[in-house]
Amino acid sequence: MELYLQMGFGMMDHAKTLISSWGGGACILSPRDMTVDQMDKFCRDIKSIGGKIALDPQFYQPYSDHEKLINHAFWPSDFETGSFFSGNAINEMIDILWNEYNAKYQTDIFFIPGRYSDVIDDVWKKCNDQMIDVVTKKGIGIPRYATLALSSEVVISEDQVHNILEHVEDWPVDGFYIVARHSKDDYLVPDASWLAGLIDLCAGLKLLGKKVIVGYSSQQMLYLALAKVDAIASGTWVNVRTFSLDKFKAAEDDQQSRRTTWYYCPQSLSEYQITFLDIAKKAGVLYDMKTDDSFQSEYVNVLFSGAQPTTVGISERETFRHYLHCLKMQIGYASQSSYDGTYKYLNMLFNTAGQLANYFKMKGVRAKYRDFSEVMDDTIAAIDLFNATRGMIYKYRWNAL
Q1: pLDDT, tens only, 219-243
Q2: Domains plus CATH for the chain?
Q3: Which residues does residue 150 pair with via DSSP β-bridges, in sequence order?
């Protein structure tokens, strides 16, 4: 499993710095957050340092009123479901997406536009079939990934997940790009049914011989390594770690008025506001929260220099880069050489993280809504269920997936 950078507000410098330091990586462009001029320069910069590019058309709400998004040339000017999917408008959209965006920016993957859906019905099937058919006839020469933008109700429903798997089996695509709305729009998901549904969907697609990228991911999505998902995508702000339709509405801001600096503690899979690191210092557990040297992340070392953490002037730039770098390292650790090895590692990781987060909480160091101990049981339940239902075939097919 790999980490892709989910581009959002203020992400360009982060992406260039990280991909340069990693010696490679991939970015998913966001038309909602980038102009064509920005994309043009950014893509050339990323390609020059060995990075890869994909573009998410973000066609989740065709009636969107987000000015930056709808001003892109590929966006339909007057969308009506019937005429768009049965007329020439869909052809025009794909032509522009390919010629003026993907081909121009030399993307490595072509993401096929997909509407957000809260039900898998005949309309969903017809519209997606038409989109796939149009793209197939274009002769696009790079891997094509179909977008599955799904509500939490779809993910939780075993019937609807299996309905998707049955319907997409014959789609002539190389992979799938999944964006799934979290249950109750939580950051970390305390819902074993949702977690079980998502990993089952990913596994079903992998067993069809397809690649799978899961967008808008947080550290909790490390559990998808058990389904041998090819990549998860994450970014800086919460709205690029969780999928929300609000991000594509005109009224959505970029969280500037709510800026808070968080430190990611990889061993507890939790994030803490810097003020709570002061509490940790007073309680004598600050050093227990320090990121292990094996992560090779020097972005936040100043927090553990001996001074009171709130006085050292740590910036969100450093904490964002620390989060993404640590997540990339954890993805590498989670992807073991065998199914059994991955299952055992994830169980150990999640149990240890939950217990450690609880220990910090007992000392007065709280992670608020970013506390992994609140979702530990649900996450472990999801991989235990996966092991019971998919484990046998995954052990057998692991090296071929």
Answers
A1: 999 999 999 999 999 999 999 999 9
A2: 2-254 (3.20.20.80), 260-393 (no CATH)
A3: 117, 180
